[in-house]
Here is the input.
Amino acid sequence: MNLRKRTNTENLASVWERTASRSGMSCDGDVWFENPISTPYIASIAIKAAELQGRRVGLRFLRKLQELLFLQKQNISDQSVLVECANSVGLDVDEFKRDIHSESAAKALQCDLQITTEMEVDQIPTLVFFNQNIEDEGMKVTGCYPYDVYVKIIEELLGDKPNPAPLPSLEEFLKQYRFVASVEISVVYNMPIQDVEKEMKKLLFKQIVVLVPVKYGTFWRYTEK
Here is the structure.
């Protein structure tokens, strides 16, 4: 590995480690040394290909892909990894493999990249909010803020305070997302991490979840009965 490439790898690994330490979401920088992503483009196309089969299954694919990358340190630019990921979340694998190379997926990704350019998105995380009026400009928010800040932004865009949907039971939430971090549960249910851990240990005792050891944070996997 030449000096420039090694320096870049070390910088990426360092950013990931700092992100994990700050957020409580595991983001293992060792992947850049052990199994670096060779071609990020194919992973991006794969996400759009999954979304062609529906928003919900597309989200499941994205979460599983994040798990494979951030926790299991797999090379998500390897097509065999992408196909296995698609299969694990219930995608039509044959259709998925065709769509990876389709014009539809390429156009969907190009649209995302165009919005990124138009909104001058150059930092992570960045969220862009739009309302239902396509004539109105979107609002770009760069950086990580408390959840309430994002709620206020939505209220300003809508010009009204929306009524939040009722929260599902913790078990239903776990059943839907399958693999979640304690910090995610803390944000969704507005609970201190200590209380989340207590509730999750109850479900662990009932064999509803299993604890997944990771480098940072605490993760839980829902188990089918």
About this structure: The first helix runs from residue 3 to 23.
